[in-house]
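Slide 14.
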Amino acid sequence: MENPNIEKRLVNYIDGEWVLPVKNDYTPVRNPATGKTITSVPLSGEKDVLAAVTAAKKAQKEWALVPAPQRAELLFRVGSLMKERKEKLASILTMENGKVIEEARGEVQEGIDMAYYMAGEGRRLFGQTTPSELKNKFAMSTRAPVGVVGIITPWNFPIAIATWKSFPAIVAGNSVIWKPATETPLMAYELAKIFEEAGLPAGVVNVVFGSGAEVGEAMIDHDDIRVISFTGSNDTGRVIASKCGMKLKKVSLEMGGKNAVIVMDDADLSLAVEGILWSAFGTSGQRCTACSRVIVHEDVKEELTERLLLAMEQLTIGNGLDESVKVGPIINEKALEKVDRYVHIGRQEGATLLAGGYVLNEDKYSSGHYYAPTLFTDVRPDMRIAKEEIFGPVVSLIEVSSLEEAIDVNNNVTFGLSSSIFTQNINQVFTAQRDLDTGIVYVNAGTTGAEIHLPFGGTKGTGNGHRDSGLAALDVFTEWRSIYVDFSGRLQRAQIDTE
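Slide 15: predicted structure.
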């Protein structure tokens, strides 16, 4: 059932006020499970961004002077309000995004966890003290806020990723301008209402709805936005990095993945099948951490394949609001076409299609965007379906004869986000966690399931070295400041007067 309380038209949230966009231009937001219009979202422009920057810049000066523990108290209140509204938020998330309700609840919980975790950092924004080289001199470092930060978030995790970015920025004393994805604006609308109710000062968080070409570009181009934190495609991330580099602006990128589960010959195959199923078909494969490759030892490939096919037959597909459904829709028609195009590419390359490989268009699926969970075998590591991100429920089986070969296959892609190994051999465990070149490594678990107190991000084409989540997120939204206090009463010159 569609939520009757959702606004028919959304508006921007700027300087603590709900304001109409300068241009009266809107686009519909549709439930990917049913095709029904849920709401309409503004396609804002540069003038809306300018208004948000003016508000954010003014608010940040005052917000930075609020003691960090007090900033943290407001963030704790945000987490409490999210917890109170968890079920409502999860239902709205499923309607706009399509992911099944249990996953939506998990995503909202991730935001709650991040609020409480970063609230704790309000009393632990630690710097360092260190002995000085000189007598009667004190040396230390502190974290300072950057100023106004811009966050650009994707549709596949519309609240979790936003909290990874906004909460550390807020507790560190910055103000935020947030451009959510136009496909999933309702989570931004709901979170902005929570910020408002929690008592966050006007202008500390501003939400400007719109496209990347309009709102995103204006944010990147504005000199007063000193950080851009982006999660999205590799192509877009490269453009953002280039433009921010020209402006000497801090930029944090979290982009794609081509993640693999390695299944060794001594693996618990029942556990491996569970891990693969969850990692590959959860969120219909629309995760940057989704498993799209299974690198399996030749001695167990046949049995693993049989077990996977049996397990895939049990997957229930449909509207994520149905508690019995395990696989929801693809976000929109364009994404559905991309998944189907890659399946055709895989067949043309010579891979063997074992299951799925088609758009679900029966009557019960005809209003939404559904793709059958798909399994390929006889996949070579150099095939496009084994190297390029598909972002859908498509898995490729790649056969290997050793751990060394498995690691080589895993690492031989342009991305480096998440990897996994199933084995009972402790030596292989430690070899894998050392040699797999991804930012996240799982042992006897799938490629998904990151926890908020550890850094999230990857290597190579997945990012540019920064991380969301954990203490590492604070590095994106703070600058290190070194402070020297000389109480000798005379000029002391470092490295010169030390002798």
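Speaker note: The chain has a mean pLDDT of 96.
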